[in-house]
Amino acid sequence: MIARTGRILSIADGVATIRVEAPSACSACGSRNICGGKAFELTRPVDAHVRAGDGITLAIEAGTLTHGALLAYFLPAATTLFGALALAHIGDLAAVAGALSGLGLGLILQRHLGHRSACRSTAIAVLPAPTFSQSTGEAP
């Protein structure tokens, strides 16, 4: 399970706006500007037991993250390659047209499958953040 901590900024109609800070390791990383190692905000439905200002933990299963990465990166690449190979026997220009057609199809499929999985997904869990004692640094 992959987890990040954040803070609830506001709650309206059971949907919270959450600010997620970048991990402390991101400040020392040379690639932080490329990967987006910055704080960001997102909205998620929450239970009634949380309120604005509360610290929370966002958790996602590693398998769900892998599925999303495959959908985002592998599907368009595979359809691009398939399109190019399907028309390569006709000529180079046809292979380029096939690759572009495959890429377009892959992006359409990606968007459709992404919306479908997002509509039924509860993959990101919003959990109360653990509280730590300031004197010992241990959980109560």
Oligomer: single chain
Mean pLDDT figure = 76
Radius of gyration: 21 Å
Tell me about the largest β-sheet.
Answer: 5 strands, antiparallel
Explain what the structure shows.
The structure is a single chain. 41% of the residues lie in helices and 24% in strands. The chain is built from three helices and five strands. The longest helix is centred in the C-terminal third of the chain and has 28 residues, at 92-119. It has helices at residues 32-35, 62-87, 92-119, and strands at 2-12, 15-20, 40-45, 55-60, 125-128. With 140 residues, it is an alpha+beta fold. It has a five-stranded antiparallel β-sheet with strand order 3-2-1-4-5. Helix 2 (62-87) packs antiparallel against helix 3 (92-119). The two termini are 23 Å apart.
Entry summary:
By secondary structure, the protein is α+β, with helices and mostly antiparallel strands. The protein has three helices and five strands.
Q: What's the layout of helices and strands?
A:
Layout: E1 2-12, E2 15-20, H1 32-35, E3 40-45, E4 55-60, H2 62-87, H3 92-119, E5 125-128
Antiparallel strand pairs: 1-2, 1-4, 2-3, 4-5
Helix pairs in contact: 2-3
